[in-house]
Structure formats: structure tokens, C-alpha cells
Amino acid sequence: TAEAARQATKTIPIVVAASADPVGLGLVASLARPGGNITGTSLMAPELGSKRLELLKETVPKISSVAVLWHPRGAGRLEWQQTEAAARRLGVTLQSYEVRNADDVARALEAMTQKRPDAVIMFFDPLTSGYRVIISDFALKNRLPTIFGSREFAAAGGLMSYGPNIPELFRRAAVYVDKILKGAKPRDLPIEQPTKFELIVNLKTAKALGLTIPPSVLIRADQVVQ
Predict the structure, then answer these.
(1) What is the 3-state secondary structure (H, E, C) of 166-185?
(2) Are residues 28 and 136 in the same domain?
(3) Which long-range contacts (CB under 8 A, 24 or more apart) does 25-29 make?
(4) CATH no. for residue 35?
(5) How far apart are CA 91 and CA 176, in angstroms?
(6) Which residue range forms the structural domain that includes residue 213?
(7) What is the pLDDT of residues 167-217, one digit of tens each?
(8) Cα first-last separation, the chain
């Protein structure tokens, strides 16, 4: 991990790719001025959490209660705050479930069977992305529309995903490596935030849920899963 690399050396340049929260994790002093031997790209982006809830509400206008599964580290905290702000504006009640491991996921799904939300949002986090099939299957079984933070969830059966284009962040990280090899110092290279985002819509899942995706959403989709 980037944290382990940072503990191992304070002098050898380190380039991180798609870091969740380089400032919050203590990797750099700030996005604009990293200040040490680490630089690269970050997953964090303004209004990402708000945008997911807006897309979900636009797709299924009748929803009023949404379960949010999120890891409370890194970018998750910021996205939760963004989602809370959007929920107040859209008149949506949120159910918060912090998930760090398989036991947390199981408890969250059990709680949702009792509280019966209208839909589910899950932020992207590398530590919880491995549960995408379990969560997508649960949502389908319980007829819950979903939006996730990475395209893998939509491919696994989620209704939609919206988030940074992660392969692009890795390509951008390669640019940092090139600059450092040419003499640039990591401390002088600002952390780059995402500029490309992708919306994936799974029409097969929409059909299974009895939903019609609005044209206003479909036209913005970067990929449609048939």
C-alpha cells in the first residue's frame, strides 16, 4: 500500500495511482503542495456523492429512503457529507451503514431487510469492492435500485455506477513517473484529481426491477449493459 511505502522511505519518489484520500491518509501535506516524496492521482472529486444521489433520484423519482454503504476512511467521509447535503435538498432520508469487512456487509444487508430502503448507494473503496456480487445479488433479490462508485458493480448486476475513470487515473500516474525520471521532484507536482467520470447503466438489471431508465439518463451513459 501507499502507506507502507511511505513508512519504508522518505527519500525515494513514490507515485500513487487512484489514492482514496492522500491528504487524509497522511501521504501528502496538501493536494496542491504534496511537500514530500509522494505525488500522483486521487479518487477524490467535488460533488461526487451528490451526483450519485441525483442520478438515482432522476432515474427512480419515487424513492424517499436510501441506504448508503460506505467505508469511513479516506474519500468515503467526504462523499458521505456530499450525499447528506444532496439528500436534504432532494427530500431523501438516508440510512448509513459503515462497511469495513465481510461481517459489516452481512450486518448491513440484514438491517436493510428490516428497514426496507427504496434504493442503495455504495461508494467505491478498494477494501469493499470485493463484495460487489453479494451486494448486487441482494439488491436484485429485494428489488432495490442501486448506484455504485465503480463500473465493476454495474457489470456485476448493479443498476448503475458513476465514478472516476480509474484506468485514466493510472495512465495519468504514468505521466508523473515520466516527469520524475526527467528530474521533477514529487513535492513540486500537485496531486491530480479526476477529470473524467463514467456513467454505466445496466438495462438487464433495469428490466429485472421493472424500471424504465429515463432518456435523460441513458443519453449521458458512457456504457450500457444489455
Answers:
(1) HHHHHHHHHHHHHHHHCCCC
(2) no
(3) 25/73, 25/74, 27/2, 27/3, 28/191
(4) 3.40.50.2300
(5) 43
(6) 48-164+198-225
(7) 899 999 999 999 999 999 999 999 999 888 999 999 999 999 999 999 999
(8) 36
